[in-house]
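DEPOSITED CHAIN:
***
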Amino acid sequence: MSITILGARTMSLVAALHSLEDIRSTLLRGTLLLILPITMVTELLDARLTSPTMPLSLTRTFSPTCRGPCLEGSAAAAGASCPCGENLTWNVEGGVLTIRGTGAMEDYSLYYDYSTQVWLSDAPWSSVWDWIRTVEIGDGVTSLGSYAFYGAANLSRITVPASVTVFGAGVFGNECPGLTTAGPIGGGYDYEFGWTDAVPTAAFSGCTGLQAITLPVKLERLSDGVFRGCSALESVSFHENDGAGWAMTVGNRAFQDCKSLTALDLPEGVTSLGYYMLQGASVTELTVPSTVTYSDYYNGRNGALAGCVPLRKVIFAEGTKTIPAYICASEGQTSYLQEIVIPDSVSSIGNSAFYYCVNLAVELRIPGSVATIGDNAFRNCPALTSLVIEEGKQTLVNGERYITQELKELENT
């Protein structure tokens, strides 16, 4: 018999041996594709004969980390050790996938199953996703590997401790329709988490079933891409924070492609907004808290609100002192923003704040409290034909640098 040893991630060829009959016929032909010893295949055949209803998947058995039978009902399940990281182990019992230990989880890959014509994960438990309803991750686990829960169609509950701070690519890819609510541990949510200071990058990315999220008190950061691709997300609940000195930042692309999100109530205390924060979302009107003083920007001049096509009105809250540079700049994205409301408390408008807002209102009122207007603040706003600057102490220098070149009228009243 000739034995060909495959790389641990060469799953597309191994996937061809997806049924018992394929294994038998391959053995008879005298050729076997392996990444583990031949004895493991014998265990597979025995498992099928003793439990015909158990799903058989060579991707589970041939996983480079699954060294033992950690599935419910297997003869050696009791006391078996199946690692999924250097110091992590897993097992499935009673529909619950339990991951325990300390440190990082291994990253997994996708392979194409030609029999079902779908992409699948080679995570060691992926062959029994039909059985798994709950995932429990122990405190001490620091990362969830790429594609770890990809394709978990029946997953309805997961608990993630605060120790998990890193999410690999596509952890919740290919939907997780049963995870519809999320919030702090103990709240009865489908997806419960232990974070109190910062929600990690991509923590919910790809959770297409998620509809509502409740954020913890005193949260200091929503990291980059935290809700990216959560297409069903409709409600984001922030806690009111009365503590002096509390501040929170919102990362880049935090709500990108949240197509069902039509409203977002940012609380006072938010100080910074990431670029493309609402790109692909459905928010039509947004109030920017008075505490926001910074907008990140991407590729020249694309700020926090760039790419949110339905957005028509932006209100800067009473008490705002500075309108951040680039906040509505949309050089690389078509802006449909028509109206902005600037309160009397504003003293400065940052550089390129409304750059390329091509649909901005015909007339715009700037209160007399505004002392400085930054470079290119209203440049390339062709729909803006009248800029009404109320009497005050404005320093209007090099107007062409911040006023649209198509401006027809500039008047002080």
Observations:
- Residues 365 and 388 are 5 Å apart (CA to CA).
